Amino acid sequence: MIITLSGYPGTHTKKLGKALSLELGLNFVSEEELGKESNVIVSDKESAEKMEEIIKEKIQKGKLVEGIIAPAIVKPELSVFLLSSEKNRAKNLAISKNISEVEAVSMLEELEENIGNAMLEAKGIDVFDLSRYDLVVSLEKIKDDGAIALVKKSLGELK
């Protein structure tokens, strides 16, 4: 089984992905970590294509993959997208990077634009098109445990 967990930058997909992978007994893989290991940061068509190669090579059954690119490359049994307001995402990023929320908003906008444009150029895919995902969960009113429960329930309902 492969599950992908995606979200806008700052949504805490890595934190939730690690918790969910433990609950499901799957190995956790982060696109960001794969990129760091290979010195690839997705910012343009060429880097998006390199990341695609890395994901194809590294991802096989029994994985929960956290990242925005994997759902377009692997064929997950379930693809999940987490939503959170820009304000909350900026707050999360500001805390984790020790920067101001204003700087965090700017960083989020740049990250989203770079990743979105890179994948559009490389694959013709809008990674932020929510209709591509099997399950979209807003974290505005649902706590982490509730999001995990929704994913687990959705897995039980797969055809």
Question: How is this structure best described in words?
Answer:
The protein has 159 residues and is of the alpha/beta class. It has seven helices and five strands. Strands 2-3-1-4-5 form a five-stranded parallel beta sheet. The longest helix has 23 residues, at 101-123. The protein is globular and about 40 Å long. The mean pLDDT is 91.
State the share of residues found in helices, binned by percent.
Answer: 40-55%
Number of domains: 1
What ranges have pLDDT less than 50 throughout 5 or more consecutive residues? none
CATH class: Alpha Beta
Secondary structure tally: strands: 5
What spatial order of strands do you see in the largest sheet? 2-3-1-4-5
Summarize, please.
This protein is an alpha/beta fold. It has one domain: 3-Layer(aba) Sandwich (Rossmann fold), CATH 3.40.50.300.
